Amino acid sequence: MRPSGRTPDQMRPITIEPRFTRHAEGSVLIGFGDTKVLVTASVEERVPPFLRGKGQGWVTAEYGMLPRATHTRGSREAAKGKQSGRTQEIQRLIGRSLRAVTDLTLLGERQITLDCDVIQADGGTRTASISGAWVALRLAVDGLLASGKLTVDPIKQKIAAVSCGIYQGNPVLDLDYDEDSNADADANFVLLENGHIAEAQATAEHATYDEEALLRLLRLARIGCNEIFAAQARAVA
Amino acid sequence: MRPSGRTPDQMRPITIEPRFTRHAEGSVLIGFGDTKVLVTASVEERVPPFLRGKGQGWVTAEYGMLPRATHTRGSREAAKGKQSGRTQEIQRLIGRSLRAVTDLTLLGERQITLDCDVIQADGGTRTASISGAWVALRLAVDGLLASGKLTVDPIKQKIAAVSCGIYQGNPVLDLDYDEDSNADADANFVLLENGHIAEAQATAEHATYDEEALLRLLRLARIGCNEIFAAQARAVA
Amino acid sequence: MRPSGRTPDQMRPITIEPRFTRHAEGSVLIGFGDTKVLVTASVEERVPPFLRGKGQGWVTAEYGMLPRATHTRGSREAAKGKQSGRTQEIQRLIGRSLRAVTDLTLLGERQITLDCDVIQADGGTRTASISGAWVALRLAVDGLLASGKLTVDPIKQKIAAVSCGIYQGNPVLDLDYDEDSNADADANFVLLENGHIAEAQATAEHATYDEEALLRLLRLARIGCNEIFAAQARAVA
Amino acid sequence: MRPSGRTPDQMRPITIEPRFTRHAEGSVLIGFGDTKVLVTASVEERVPPFLRGKGQGWVTAEYGMLPRATHTRGSREAAKGKQSGRTQEIQRLIGRSLRAVTDLTLLGERQITLDCDVIQADGGTRTASISGAWVALRLAVDGLLASGKLTVDPIKQKIAAVSCGIYQGNPVLDLDYDEDSNADADANFVLLENGHIAEAQATAEHATYDEEALLRLLRLARIGCNEIFAAQARAVA
Amino acid sequence: MRPSGRTPDQMRPITIEPRFTRHAEGSVLIGFGDTKVLVTASVEERVPPFLRGKGQGWVTAEYGMLPRATHTRGSREAAKGKQSGRTQEIQRLIGRSLRAVTDLTLLGERQITLDCDVIQADGGTRTASISGAWVALRLAVDGLLASGKLTVDPIKQKIAAVSCGIYQGNPVLDLDYDEDSNADADANFVLLENGHIAEAQATAEHATYDEEALLRLLRLARIGCNEIFAAQARAVA
Amino acid sequence: MRPSGRTPDQMRPITIEPRFTRHAEGSVLIGFGDTKVLVTASVEERVPPFLRGKGQGWVTAEYGMLPRATHTRGSREAAKGKQSGRTQEIQRLIGRSLRAVTDLTLLGERQITLDCDVIQADGGTRTASISGAWVALRLAVDGLLASGKLTVDPIKQKIAAVSCGIYQGNPVLDLDYDEDSNADADANFVLLENGHIAEAQATAEHATYDEEALLRLLRLARIGCNEIFAAQARAVA
């Protein structure tokens, strides 16, 4: 039995509020149950130094957690003076995932930065961030298309992410904090709507796992991502 | 004429959503028009080193601005590795203001941290933060009283803050970004419900000002704070 | 009774030694009683990036306290690797104050940096810094005028600053450390010779204050600044 | 055809020089072809703060790359003042992997730190680090057993890691730098001798991949890890 | 001919103003010509962690240069967020030199910190710092003896330092900035009154030097230090 | 008697393995007994900002110690976020020493960086670094000459360095860790093959020393450097 009473392949309710803030070219408040992440997409007409003059754009991400997004208050990274290894690992993953579905040459010499700030955390903040970031990116690119700055859509596909894990011996979908902190293994999958994989990461926490378990986790992830793709489609409709 | 069409002594709509997040002992999303600040109050049963064993508590604040809260994206302080002088100045002001209405001895040997994170900025983020922080603090202390951890209320009074300024020669209340960025002078007042002043700061931006102007700004601030006191009362009712 | 035996409206002796060091374009050792601040004005023929090509100059300030300027040794900010919030707040105030009396367009595309280093502290270091910085700036600009680099004086007025506070219930002028550390409220005023205000900051420390008190503090500040204006005039004569 | 002329399932030569340095309780220079990593295991009779008094030990890792381990010189992280996101991601992975085969309770209240410093890089530095770290850990624990500080072996299994990827459409084992920098997708697997998985990470670089490809990469990894297990066994014999 | 017209073995005027500031247990403004360094000695009744419980004290130093001590303004180390290699090298030298003449066991479990802040620089700031630090240390220890906190004097000898160099082919004593920036070689010697050497450092700048030159520089240093010893004796008389 | 049984003027075995790594333009693993330092020389076709357009090149050095190069593990400077004063002092010395034998104008507008990383430490790491850096520089410059990028050799002479010290009252050559940590005084000399001195540094640790001792240490250093010059010649033959 899962602490939340969900079935093994049951996602938490997915909520997506597009255009949650006014200034960003794209923005969204995405919720996977009690996990809430504000994602903004900011378009800047310049590229980082390593891409100057190469005729292509860039998509990147930054991730943060408000100090009291969590059960007990964590320290503020700006006050500590550095981002944790966890933060950097997550923001690298988000950027990489969104670039996997963007044609950077079609984007032109501009950068889109996806800021993912966790307002409330209950497990799965990185996967909610990726899933929300696609919506924010979509909205920002729609604006570029509408204004004529872009004439061809550089976004090749939808992308979504979800966590799964082995909890008390059973593969389950979309871990919440109670499950995540006690899982034998947890995994994050970043999937495309056509079934392809952009990223698979599966980590033994309290017990190693076998190939069969890896495949069962991947299949759960497909179920979850299909729900997310549907929610994304409604949000940008 | 003000860009927003407001009269000189007219506040923007004040919105206060108490208990906006679940984990914090107190939380609120406060809005002064398009300025939106999430404030959480976190109770910790320990005090900073300089107060250990002194039989009193502490109230402190941290302030942050999400990178795309503003019209153009600002850099993330956690990524830059330090908080700006502006950030530090504001969080010092917030903490000082809330301590002005808290009896730290009655609070006991515990610390309450007020995290003020700006979700969307349109002028007045520091005054919205102070005004919202009082609500978050009130909710957190109510919890301590309800649980029996406190038996006497350490909050002595309500406190609120608002900005005013000289815009195109006229004193006006509650500057939005358009006004703030062009004001001759701007001021922030932190006031108590009994009319007393906890903090007055008035700065010449494009023109110095005289004593008469200072008094007129203070009187506008009283008008604004009275509206905020009423909104605070409704929020914690 | 004040610990120093001064009357409520009595300044400490003001000492100004112009040209205290040789290399700077302007320099001064200013004393308000036992508070001693060395201020240098450095002229550089360049402006910060945000002003390049805008046809105007810049005046900025940096502030520091020698580790043993105080009663007990404080840690060296260079060794800790960052400037405190207090330091940043003060240097922002100093720069803003001096810019309030400088016509930056007349200054031309050059920057004047006012370094205010506290040699010995006994209360009022920020107000002594501002008052001394005007002298250093005046000397540096006189040099630019004498050399023909400037033909029109960009300094519009004198500026001075002084602290006041409510000490044991009474408004007093120019707090020393003993008073400052026990004041109910303290205030810093930055005033022009024509009576206008560039900056007013009044903070409740142990007790909030009312409008009447604010006005009495401002009037004390005028008395103090008039003495400082006279001392500045003698120093640059 | 692979640039090196290897077959798809062919590892580069694996070299392991145990006891490469004298001071560390365990040390090894491991080579996967031209990739050379020096790993030392340092035993300290204390645990990090979060584990004090919990009756268990800790295994952790730090990773670094000498500035000229690479084709062109990279900047020294100590001089830049921070570790990159990549460095932190890798050292977190190494520590996690080694903890997966260590019984931390049997280790007792002591910490073993695995320092993995890349002397020369040609792809696969993180997997060489993990594979070498097991040898260094084994040697250090053997010392603790020999000295009587431990009486029961806390290392539960062998662990090894290898990279694989899709290069020009074909799954290949143990990418060198030429392949790694042009791969469609690359993956790192951390495997146990009994076939279980401690960590699987597969990332689309230039093209997403499907479930079948993921399984083929995993099977290549098993081939590679079996060679590494044999080399580890020879090294500690 | 030296730019200043001095003879090869002629020091600049040495000025020592003891008790230049009020709060420090010892303080001095020392001048070697236009080089002016403020040195304070701060006594703290604690020792650094590595000496706790070892029954001995510690003497250490910190060095700083005010931004406009030099001909052109240098950046403030506190603002840059780190001390330069030069600063650290100098403060390590100062601390080591003073410890060479202090019996740390006799000092008891307390620390004396020598803060050397350069007010104005014209060559020789590190040697002026060491020479002044001895005076500040002497004054601080005299206070400890006078108050009965110490009964036996832990200072074993006088110590002084001076620079020398090869300027236009000739060994000269006490380089000023003009000479220092053009010297073929420069050297710093830290000497005891009994003729012994605590530190000798001689560096080729534009030309290497031979043993004979090293000895001639050392002999010039003896001449200079004897003058400094006399000035130190007058200052603490 | 020396702990190692060596005679006072006996060096430890000198080992030099040129071309220890593949990517660097020059590389060497140098050993003075158990002290092992990997030095690489990296050629970059650019100069630091302060030399741009001046028609000359630059030679600089960076130094690091692997965390477990020493008897007990030291913390990793990259993880601490700054280089120690000792590290900076050493790398400044290495760079200065190599520049003393390089004609920077002949080098052209390029920079050669010498990275000295201590693999294993047993005293004398800075002198081994300098001695090895000459070999790495020589190899890198030979490559520039062979490729025709340089036509005239900018290296003017060989340079080598060795430590000496007063151990139990006797001057000895090439201190190992046991001697170094107990020496009364220690010294580092950087010498040219023609007998000239590039750098002499002699420091009292537990006892000051006299002129006669300084000269005896210098003479021991000549003996040691002559052995190093011979080893360097063999390595680059």
UniProtKB/TrEMBL annotation, chains A, B, C, D, E, F:
The UniProt keyword set, sorted, is: Nucleotidyltransferase, RNA-binding, rRNA processing, Transferase, tRNA processing, tRNA-binding
Question: Could you tell me one molecular function GO term of this UniProt entry?
Answer: tRNA nucleotidyltransferase activity
**One Pfam family of this chain:** RNase_PH
Give, as one word, the top-level EC class. transferase
> InterPro entries this protein is in?
ExoRNase_PH_dom1, ExoRNase_PH_dom2, ExoRNase_PH_dom2_sf, PNPase/RNase_PH_dom_sf, Ribosomal_Su5_D2-typ_SF, RNase_PH, RNase_PH_bac-type, RNase_PH_CS
User: What reaction(s) does this enzyme catalyze?
Assistant: tRNA(n+1) + phosphate = tRNA(n) + a ribonucleoside 5'-diphosphate
Q: Where does phosphate bind?
A: 86, 124-126
HAMAP family, per the entry: RNase_PH (MF_00564)
**Protein's name according to its UniProt entry:** Ribonuclease PH
In its UniProt entry, the species of origin is given as: Sphingomonas endophytica
Quote the gene name from the UniProt entry.
rph
